[in-house]
Amino acid sequence: MSKLAGRVAIVTGGASGLGRATVMRFLAEGAKVVVADLNEANGAETVAVAKANGHGEAIAFVRCDVANEADVAATVAAAETRFGRLDIAYLNAGVGGAFGPIAETSVEDWDYTFAVLTRSVFLGMKHASQAMKKYEQGGVILVTASIAGMVGGGGSHAYSAAKAAVISLIENVAVELGPHRIRVVGIAPGVISTPLLHRGKPERYEAQFKRQPWPDRGAPEHIADVAAFLCSDDARFITGETVKVDGGLLAQGVALFGTGKNSTFLKSAGVNRGTTGEAMVVRHLEPKDRKS
Questions:
Q1: Residue tagged active-site, from 90, 112, 135, 159
Q2: Which residue segments constitute the domains of the chain, with CATH numbers given?
Q3: Is 159 assigned a catalytic role?
């Protein structure tokens, strides 16, 4: 029997990368899925792929700014209206966010990073948990965290801090929602080949891929496999946990983007808006401006 037969799921950031791979896996496991994403073109493409695989009646797309409470509430309502309930909320949407030396990071880019990566998780937990409590049959809230939130050297300071906050939210909200049989769990990817990471040029990140002990390159399907397990009854006694899915990268120590003055994140500044369809901003810094 399919692991998620009869379940209704929301996947934020579900129109590309990790999200799209998980949407397809959830559908294959028997779930009905609402894809929530800011990028409507990618959303339409994801729905078309699902329909081509015979899942047309089990998928819906909702345009959603995950940092906007009204949009998040409307997404949860859409799942209930279209499919009658909500069992799984995979809060996956993300961006690269602010990067560069801390002295070069604007308040606006910092706030944008935390809005998309952290406020979105708070909002998703808030509204998904209310829907799940309504049906009194429990549920699963799954969150994409990152190994960058577990150790220094895995990402920019803003991205890493936002993901560390997410990991803390997973632990604390799991304690609150446990009595309602709502599990809260996280996945912490390492280097995964997605548009968010390589922005169409995966060859730029060969050095990062080679740093992990496991010889295979991280792929979105690796995350989707773990997501399907964590959202199934096979993981029914796991809550408050964030699972590393990183090919052993964190186990050996991580400095993905160089160290000290050679860090990639100190050579330019700006904000990475991921696959939202909004433009990335990059300012290349002169050596005199790279003081951390």
A1: 159
A2: 8-289 (3.40.50.720)
A3: yes
